[in-house]
Amino acid sequence: AKARGRNGYQFYAPSMSGEGVERLRLETMLRRAIEKNEIFLHYQPQVDIDSGRLVGVEALVRWQSPELGRVEPTRFIPVAEDTGFIGQLGQWVLAEACRQMVCWDTDGLRVPKMAVNLSVRQFDRGSIAPTVAAVLHGAGLAPARLQLEVTESVIMNTGDALEYINDLRAIGVGLAIDDFGTGYSSLAYLKQLPVQTLKIDRSFIKDISADAGADANAEAIAVAIIQLGKSLNLSVIAEGVESEEQAAFLLRHGCSHAQGYLYSRPVLPAEILARWGQGQDK
Ligand code: C2E
Ligand code: CA
Ligand code: CA
Ligand code: CA
């Protein structure tokens, strides 16, 4: 009762900014959202540009709140990170994504790989490899079919990150560096990491176009990342591909995998099955 009184006081304290109140409200609602079934996943296809084949999907968390409407992950993930709720949320996402893979298998759609985002804060309480292994085992999914996406900040910000990343690799899951090129990755460090995939950030893809005004810098960076990936023997995937010109550019420069609105927005599992399942050619 005491804690509650304090919260109430904080809530109405004049020193608390409107934004603070908003965050507190969001936090409270977010904590209940999982049990109220307001949280679910969308999946965005990752395709082989040349053949159009499905090479994987990325799980993207969604929150549909009766009170707030659709809340964007860019708004609630930071709140979950600040409050420590990201641990529970991240584990729910992982379990749900693994469960979905096995569901598709049963329905005759073998999605080669499931990509799941990890937040830097999920490494705060030590190695998460045992949890990930338990979730995979519980779902009955082979570790090699899971790819965890971490940003460069995960690697650079956490003291024992390299150890934790190695633990994850040791249980057999794949690792990708997300938003590659936007962080402060040291190339020497990159070589030591047990990652298999670089994901080129959308900011470098969006300015690739056939227009005369195309951003030569963005194009040069995209090409440099593709070449870097090749020389380190990593696979490279581009995110945020929206046009045929961008896809053609990537293919021409040796990047064969892409994800973006050109192929599909993030969608519900049934839509993935309808489009890529047995009897469909694309
Ligand atoms: P991200 O991991 O970089 O995910 C890609 C974001 O780009 C997604 O936004 C996706 O919907 C969007 N996107 C995909 N293709 C295109 C395109 O062609 N054009 C444009 N303009 N956008 C495209 P979304 O779903 O809003 O997610 C935003 C961010 O929230 C993600 O960025 C990721 O950092 C975070 N996030 C989402 N789900 C999770 C999760 O389960 N766990 C964690 N830790 N973070 C998540
Ligand atoms: Ca991602
Ligand atoms: Ca990304
Ligand atoms: Ca990005």
TrEMBL record:
Q: Which residues form the EAL domain?
A: 23-280
State a single Gene Ontology molecular function: cyclic-guanylate-specific phosphodiesterase activity
- Membrane as a keyword of this entry, yes or no, is yes
Q: Alphabetically list the UniProt keywords.
A: Membrane, Transmembrane, Transmembrane helix
GO BP term (any one)? cellular response to nitric oxide
Instruction: Output the Gene Ontology cellular-component terms.
Output: membrane
Q: What is this protein called?
A: EAL domain-containing protein
Q: What is the species of this protein?
A: Telluria aromaticivorans
First-to-last residue of the parent protein present: 772 to 1053 of 1069
